[in-house]
Design goal:
Order of helices and strands: HHEHEHEHEHEHEHHEHHH
Strand order of the largest sheet: 3-2-1-4-5-6-7
Structural class: alpha/beta
CATH class: Alpha Beta
Radius of gyration: 22 Å
CATH topology: Rossmann fold
Shape: globular
Largest sheet: 7 strands, parallel
Number of helices: 12
Distance between the termini: 92 Å
Mean pLDDT: 87
Oligomer: single chain
């Protein structure tokens, strides 16, 4: 009779618990390999929009640590110059500052002109902002500015740098999507629509540009403590750290088409997947209503005074 092995005492949870966690030395080695991959695959220059704060700033920092030279794009000249000086001193890289408002129609051309003579291998389009509250209470000028920054400037940069990367046979494009782009979002309707645009564009370009050596990634984080909520007039609860979002994003570049950086992003997304799209819209709408509840209260107080 053939012998049979019984695995009744096998406990994978216990096995994992008994395994040795990675040491600081192992972590440092892994990070060194990750930095080398970024510099080899996507160097020598990277363009980061929205570089002055939040996720964009953290991605710029990680790229500087990897030794990539940086073109830092945002509205704040002083903040960018301070970052550039700090990165040049700490990491011995070259930097260039472009203080540009990407909502302006001339912004795309200025970025192209200022980077034309640089060997750029990576575009990180992290610039963006959101609006919140009832759609009918919004300002058209503000909504159009958001559309210009989140979509118009982004597609212009994708086209320009995508063509350059395809010609050189390698490169990378990181587009900052969001989990709110996976369905409609009442009380942030237009913002969610811009992120849906970004997400589907990234998914398509990932397939189109891969044969030409260009990696395209859609990074879709959940709520992040990045200063975004202040400008959008939201009150967030649990949030991700920009550092974790930046690290998860860069680690996924060249390895997949979409990344949900951080456990919170994954939890909020996967928890809703089994539900019909209409149900997801309503649930997300209730969540957003909670984040913008103060706006409704303030509006009601204003109406009561009239």
């Amino acid at each position: 009779m053939a012998s049979k092995t019984v695995y009744s005492n096998f406990n994978p949870i216990r096995l994992l618990a008994q395994s040795n966690p990675p040491t600081q030395e192992h972590k440092a080695t892994a990070r060194s390999h990750a930095h080398k991959r970024l510099s080899t695959r996507y160097g020598p220059w990277a363009v980061v929009t929205g570089a002055s704060s939040g996720i964009g700033r953290e991605i710029a920092l990680q790229l500087a640590k990897a030794g990539l030279n940086l073109v830092l794009v945002a509205r704040s000249q002083q903040v960018l110059e301070e970052m550039a000086a700090d990165f040049a001193t700490r990491f011995s890289i070259e930097t260039q500052v472009l203080a540009i408002d990407l909502a302006q129609e001339t912004a795309i051309g200025r970025v192209e002109a200022e980077t034309d003579d640089l060997d750029v291998g990576l575009l990180v389009a992290a610039a963006g902002f959101g609006t919140s509250g009832p759609f009918l209470n919004t300002s058209l000028d503000q909504e159009l500015d958001m559309l210009n920054v989140n979509c118009r400037a982004l597609v212009g940069h994708c086209l320009y740098f995508g063509q350059r990367f395809a010609k050189r046979g390698r490169g990378g494009i990181v587009l900052m999507s969001s989990i709110v782009g996976f369905q409609g979002l009442p009380n942030a309707a237009h913002y969610a629509a811009t992120k849906a645009y970004v997400h589907t564009l990234a998914e398509a370009l990932n397939v189109e540009l891969a044969p030409q050596g260009v990696d395209v990634l859609a990074s879709a984080p959940g709520p992040t403590n990045s200063g975004f909520a202040d400008r959008a007039d939201m009150r967030m609860g649990a949030t991700l750290k920009p550092t974790d979002v930046a690290q998860g994003t860069l680690d996924a570049l060249g390895r997949r088409a979409v990344v949900l950086p951080g456990l919170l992003s994954k939890f909020l997304t996967y928890a809703l997947i089994p539900l019909p799209r209409s149900a997801r819209v309503r649930i997300m709408g209730r969540i957003m209503h909670g984040m913008t509840k103060h706006q409704h209260t303030e509006q009601q107080l204003h109406l009561n005074k009239q």
